[in-house]
Structure formats: structure tokens, C-alpha cells
Amino acid sequence: MKLLRIFCLYPCALAFALAAILIGFFSQAHIPEGRAFATIIPLAGGYLPATIVGDSWWEDRTPTPRVPANLMPAARPSGEKFVPLLGTQDNFPMLGLGLCCRATAYDFHSVSRSVLWYLLKGGRHLDAAYLYMNNEAIGHAIAAAADRGVPRSELFVTSKLGPRFFSGLSPEVELKLMLQQLGLDYLDLVLLHHPEGIGGMIGKCANGTAAECRANAWVKLSALRAQGLIRNLGVSNFQISQIQPLEALGLAPVSVNQVQYNPWVPDWQQDVVDYCQKKGIVVTAWSPFQGTMMQHASLFTVQSLQEVARAKGKTVAQVMLRWALQKGVVAIPGTSNPAHMDENLAAYSFELTAGEMAVIDGVRSDPKAKGFVAIGFEKNDS
């Protein structure tokens, strides 16, 4: 009995107590799932999360280098490409900086330095979200870049509103708070972040069905668009059956669908992309290098991709980004490494042949593709 207590009861009790503490810690936040991600993702990457140790702890520890005080803006990338958006015809830069889902995406110093580096290197498209809980850092960097000569008028800032805030007056209240955090007068693009909630459970809308909540959010955000607080509206992780009711409302057009997209996607995800492109809805690819972290690493070991990269004198990452561009898909790779930003933006500067594109298309038949996991963009019939 004593051994049972030592090896089972005590550890189990400790685990339950720890779980209860974490649940309480997360639930106290304005966006509980945001605090959870901002805690768990850094821990998974071997970093102490700012949600526990504070932002100041990271100031001298972040791997993202300080931006030199005398560094001025570089020219915009050679060969930069844009796609027009439904309704406004705004030019949407086809490469952007994703601001989530890596260990250095959640503390103030890493995020603000990353954004400032990117803007000074000529990048202009920032992909943010209310869920990421890093708006203040992004806003700080935008202001710092403006002080060095990067005007707001050149930026394209995307953000997203999660299902938790789809009902009632929440879309208007939270959108205005988002703008305040970012220090901006308007957003270039606002997306409904998910049709129902992560896994259909986490962060879901509490008042009404998922479809009713989405319709309410679209009505409220369309009104804010008419007021000039938003220029374009879109969705993220939506399937065809969830896009069509929003189109039927006859309000702001659905201009973008941001989904997980890369050469390994299963047929049902490709069907969503095909529908959007046929309708003139721009597709933005989050996770353009694969799904989970392990799959991300796996992609770079595919022999056919390595061969294309060697032939072009480029990296596999650059080849993947160029493949997306030539598919007419916007890509938002996330990085806090200035060298990787240069590498990513250089994807504008070369082209793949039809034969090389066919080789990359063929990656879907690679045995590694069978392990593809859609995280966040899963089948959802709500």
C-alpha cells in the first residue's frame, strides 16, 4: 500500500493539482485559449513563457537580435507580387510575416523586434490575431518603423477575431480594443478566425449556434467596414459550406480564406482552395511548410524538393514559398530570425518552371504525405 501511494496516488494527485492550477490560470485571461497557447507553445520549444516569467525576463534573452538604432528601411523586395481583393481591389502582398505559433511569438521583445526587422527589410504584410495576445508589441514596432520612414499607408495589417467574440455586440467592442492595442486607426483585413472554435470546442461562441454566431459577426464587422475601421473582410479555416451563407448575406464580400496549405494537403482541403480561387476569394496559406513541427522538419528531407532547390540554387523553404506564389496563394511564414526573413522575401525574385512545379505537386503522393495532420483547419460541418 505504501508503494502504491508513492508510485501512483501521490503523482496522480500532484498531476491533478497542477492541471487545476493551469486551468484556473488560463481561464482568468480575457482570451483563455490565447493565454494557453502563449504558455504551452514556448514551453514546447524549450523557452520560459512570458505569461509566467514576464516580458522583461526576455529582453536580454530573446534569440531575436536588437535592431540597430541607425538601421533605415531597405527597398521593398525585388519582384514583389500582389493580388487584388474583392470589393476594394486593395493590393494584398503575397508574402507576409506570420505572428504566431512559435516560441518567440508571445513575448514583447521578441515580437516587437521581429516586426521591426521585417518592416525595415522591406516586408509590408503582417498577419496578426486577437488570439495571439501580442498586439501591443506589434503596434510598438509599427510605430518604431514609422519613425524610421515606413509609412502606415504602405503596410497591410491583417488580424482575426475568434468565435468567442462572434455574438451580440462583442465584434464591435473587441475590434475597437484590438485597434487600440495596435495603435492603428483601421485594419486592412479582418478574418473570422475559425468557424466554430478550435476542435469545435475551445473558444467557441457561447450564445447561439455556430452559424448564427458567424452571421452576427459578419453583420457587425460589415458595419465597421462601412465606418472605415476595416477595409476588407475574410475568413480563416472555413469550408465551402461555411463560406456560402456569408456570401448570401449580401454584405461585405468574403475576400480571403486563410487555411493551412502546402503541397501535402488532402483532397478535401484542395477542394476548398479550388472553390475560393474560382470565386475570386484569395487563399492565404498558414503553415506553408507543413503541419506539426515534426512534419515541418520532414518536409525539408523530401528528396525531390531538395533536388529542385539545388537546381535553382535556393533553399527548400524558398522553393515552397515560390510554389505557393505561382499557385496564386499568399504565404505567411513565421520567423523571428532576420536572416530567414531575407530568405523568405527572396522567394519573389525567381521562378519555377512548369516541370519543377509538377515535381512539387507530386509531393502529395510521397509516403510522408500520409502522415499529414491538419491542425486548426480540420473538417467541421457546423
UniProtKB/TrEMBL annotation:
Keywords: NADP, Oxidoreductase. This is NADP-dependent oxidoreductase domain-containing protein. Belongs to the aldo/keto reductase family. The keyword Nucleotide-binding does not apply. The keyword Secreted does not apply. Residues 106-363 form the NADP-dependent oxidoreductase domain. Pfam families: Aldo_ket_red. GO terms for molecular function: oxidoreductase activity, acting on the CH-OH group of donors, NAD or NADP as acceptor. CDD domains: AKR_AKR1-5-like. Gene3D superfamilies: NADP-dependent oxidoreductase domain (3.20.20.100).
